[in-house]
Fold:
Amino acid sequence: AALNDGLRSQVSAALKEGRVAPTELCQRCLALIKSTKFLNAYITVAEETAMKQAEESEERYKRGQPLGILDGIPVAVKDNFNTAGIETTCASNMLKGYISPYNATVVQKLLDQGAVLLGKTNLDEFAMGSGSTDGVFGPVRNPWSYSKQYKEKSVPKSDSEESDWVITGGSSGGSAAAVSSFTCFAALGSDTGGSTRNPAAHCGVVGLKPTYGLISRHGLIPLVNSMDVPGILTRCVDDAAVLLGSLAGHDPKDSTTIQDDFEPFELPNLTDVSKLSIGIPKEYHAPGLSSEILALWSKAADLFKNAGAKVVEVSLPHTRYSIVCYHVLCTAEVASNMARFDGLEYGHRSDMKDSTESMYAATRREGFNDVVRGRILSGNYFLLKQNYEKYFVKAQKVRRLIANDFVKVFRSGVDILLTPTTLSDAAPYTEFIQEDNRTRSTQDDILTQAANMAGLPAINVPTALSERGLPVGLQFIGRSFQEKQLLTVAKWFEKQVQFPMIQLEEVKRHDSGVFQHQKSASFS
Amino acid sequence: QKVSVEVLDHLEHLALVDFRDSEGVERLHKAIQFADQLHEVNTDGVEPMDSVLEDRCLYLREDDVTEGNCTKELLENAREKVEEYFVAPPGNIPLPKLEERETFLQGS
Structure:
């Protein structure tokens, strides 16, 4: 088995049939993590525990009793999920050295099914950002910066190759980079405004944001309680369905998970799309959308039309307010959620001893970066008595209007919405940091945020390479809790576009050649 | 429209986080300006939305103790503790007033 295999289609079978051992797979992933260290995708690599998990998995396979399809599969988890015994930092000084006493529910579920946890991935501090550039461990580099495809198209701006690299997008950039560079078969991210789909688009991987309430947030360090969801990053849609199947379902420890029974599903191979109605929301032709992506979006719509699906233009009139609305609701919830970090029970603690409050203030002064502090202060402003109605409640009302826009469209007979995921391909790091975090987030979240506002499931499917040789993805948004339909359509689309595999240079790839990989014809 | 120094000071007290410099204050001003766009939207007769799951009943489990007894694990991450107590510096001491503090806000 090769590291770039599809989980379900190839690696799991290889493990079951004994063609590859879990320990071997784990070792190869760990070695690849080492050789791709320059990507800075991982904050913590849990070598010892991963090998131990791999050994236990191997025992189970030897006895012919694997726990399931995920047994022995190396995975990575974004560093804002609590992992027992492994440092959880949220890429912040506030939690440096924090070793959680418990596993987040989703982490526990992965471990219970025998997955091998390789480590914790890098992110923007406390998941605030859209570049994975603002964490204390430094920025994450997009693996495509080192691809043949990008290098062929780029004119080096300087002598040093070092300055030409592009960002992963964020905030789950580490997870996206980890999956994209083959160091793991799947990774967990989180998605509050697009934090899983955005880096998925820039790194050429599948990024799924499930319906709010489907997957437990217990143990996911919260940003916005009413919008956060764990996100799933994989190299193909089938794998995303596997992960979803193992993670979804009611959790008594998270009262915002719905109580309906969840049935894991296998995705059918859709051949007939004539009964599908695809909606194209015109407001997603947002200012700043690159002509390239606009063309791809249009081409995708035609693809569905030519295959017999009904493709209609629809309107989500309040789209342009979703970012403003998010800005207020997010900062307000952040102001509340970040209040727990006071140095007393866990995390960084200042040496200040004058009083409780001065200790808290000093701890937070030392522990949070500008972005986090800025959002806390803004949030507190919007929550002041004199501002509460004017901003917070107002934003909640606008939220309802945004959610209703979707309800109306889905009620009119549309099954799935097709939109771009990002405004352009990944920007070079040097260019990205010219603008401040809030401005960037405002611009970059515009196409992804509304789905969080309405709690709907959405997925990024890598579609084609841009003129610069970088991945571009398109987004599908579905009805609440209709992940099966959403993923089925996404899988059909994935098959049509045949997104090319990344050709990483400078990185020793472990290709045993047992499995051939189709060199896919590109979409564009 | 600038936010008064009193409000800025009040925010620092509420948030227990500092603006640090004029950039921090500018950031707030920009955030407010940005948020003001909300007022373009007509929300007459619209109810605020707390949660997308508002049509469902929140799950309440039975009031049975199912886990706990993890004092040791919970204390492990605290820097200062005595026996089974988290130790804090003395409380009920208000933060110094604006005039008494060394803060960049004084200059404003």
Chain B has three helices and two strands. Residues 22-35 of chain B form the longest helix (14 residues). Strands of chain B lie at 81-82, 85-86.
